[in-house]
Amino acid sequence: MRGRMLRNHAFRALPALVAASSLLLAWEIYCRASGISETTLPAPSQVLLQAWLNREALWANTVPTLRATLLGFSLSLVLAFLLSMAIDFSALMRRALFPIFIASQTLPLVAIAPLVVLWFGFGLLPKILLVALVTFFPMLVALAEGYASTENEVEDLLASMGASRWKRFLLARLPSALPYFFAGLRISITYAVVAAIFAEYAGAAKGLGIYMLNAKNNFRPDLVLAAVLVSSLLTLLLFSATWAVQRLAAPWIDSTSGRRP
Amino acid sequence: MTEPLLRLDRISLSYSEIDVLQDISLDVLPGEFVSILGPSGAGKSTIFKLLTGAANAGSGEIQFAGKPLIATDRPFAFMPQRDALMPWRRIIDNTTLGLQVQGMRRKEARKRVAPLFKEFGLGGFEQHYPQALSGGMRQRAALLRTVVQDRPVLLLDEPFGALDALTRNQMQIWLEAMWLKHRWTIILITHDVREAVMLSDRIHLLSPRPARVERTIAVPLPRARFSHPTARAEAAAIETSILDFLLSPQIREPEGLLP
Questions:
Q1: Does the distance separating the beta carbons of A160 and B76 come in below 8 Å?
Q2: Which residues form the ABC transporter domain (chain B) (predicted)?
Q3: CATH number where B147 lies
């Protein structure tokens, strides 16, 4: 059974693998055949080789980025939870706060990131704030819509049992929001790494963002791409982690289709 | 004569200028199985909303055990139309929901419901999630959740409406057997005439909106009706007369259209 399942997965991944390999192969052939300069477009093999040779420097710069991502994302989760509850319990809060949340999404990161660095320095704090700024809104919307998805009959039932508004929230609205929460988590975790790198790009002592900037300034696109490879792997890792957390925390969600049972 | 446990006295209610209930008067005796039968959209569920405190009557009075009903006393356990089982709770924790809302600890509540699982045909499914259960089992779990709240009156709102015909029949047979054993006071909302006749001691027939009690029909058939040699045939006759009445023009046509 298990063997067949694994083979099935491998079979389903086959088209994607073939497509990606073909692209990389075409890229490699073009680089070798055209004789294009390595400082303009390095071949994939060159990128992989350099990633391996510079693995220690890459790792040393991955750790701060990962730290900023996780701390910023945690801050965003805490804020999203607290504020989503505030707007769920109070229509006044919803009317007061929601426009501000939406406005926060209209700020161009390109302009805001250098300012945040200017205000809060080159340390960890501006990165945390920028990651939180980028990931907060999707999480808030996911939670708010999740609460609203609670079935009326479940709420009526709890009301008939004499449950208070707070108990209705804990027993029905919050669990109803979990599938939405995990969907939002998967969307915003992919923004989180990019946001951290962007914050570092605007100014940092260490991190993948500043590593990319330095490599670019030293005419080493191979190292830029090596860092890009690492950041992609990081995002994929965090993305998979959300599935693992979901399976542990909410095993009742039908994870194969993503829909609610 | 027994005093009614519950009495609705000339209850009227309108939502945004639409009359939903008009002078509804009906009563329920202790230990009685009463049905409220009426067409879809007649306002049957609204009567339950009044009882559970989810809506307030415009006029009229509800009396429970001889005194005006105080909503916070909550003498009713309510079973909504669809089972409303929570997909994130195991079956055992779904059935203890009402006890938990009342403030009972989870462990204690589980201990209280566990012995009832077998009787409700749910033995061995305590730790399953509702998604894994058939429609009939889900309804039985929902009924167990209703019963363990230990309230004087059970309010069942079209409990078998979503089931396939065969399962619905099995559930009716099972419910009658359970009621014969426990003698709960039950108010059943249904639009299924046969279901009302086979299960009830009395049927309150509602008109289309605005709902009035058109008629109260006693069903003095022997129990258990589904296995009784003559009860089914007699039930069929009562069913026909109710259908004739419901389909007669003065009931079907809205007021004012007929001379």
A1: yes
A2: 6-233
A3: 3.40.50.300
Cβ contact, residue pair A250, B88, below 8 Å = yes
* Whether A160 and B88 lie within 8 Å, measured CB to CB: no
> Contacts of residue A260 in chain B, CB cutoff 8 Å?
87
B87 to A151: CB separation less than 8 angstroms, yes or no? no
Instruction: Give the mutation candidate from A160, A167, A253, A256 for the B interface (greatest B CB count, under 10 A).
Output: A160
pLDDT digits (tens, 9 = 90+) for A106-138: 888 888 999 999 999 888 999 999 999 999 999
Could you tell me the sign of the dihedral formed by the alpha carbons of B109, B111, B117, B122, in that order?
A: positive
Residue B178 lies in a domain: yes
Helix axes A124-148, A109-120, angle to 10 degrees: 130
Residue-level pLDDT at B211: 86
Burial code (b: 16+ CB inside 10 Å, e: under 16) for A16-37 equals: eeeeeeeeeeebeeebeeeeee
Contact A156 B76 (CB under 8 A): no
Q: Is B72 in the A-facing interface, judged by CB distances under 8 Å?
A: yes
**Is the Cβ of B125 closer than 8 Å to some Cβ of chain A?**
no
What's the structural domain count of chain B? 1
CATH superfamily of A42-249: MetI-like (1.10.3720.10)
Q: What is the CA radius of gyration of chain B?
A: 19
| Cβ atoms of A196 and A69 closer than 8 Å | yes
DSSP annotation of B66? T
Dihedral, CA of residue A179, residue A181, residue A182 and residue A183, to nearest 10: 80
Domain with B133 in it? 54-184
Nearest-neighbour CA in chain A from B87: distance (Å): 7
Averaged pLDDT score across all residues of chain B:
89
The single residue listed with the structure tokens 């005093």 is: B3
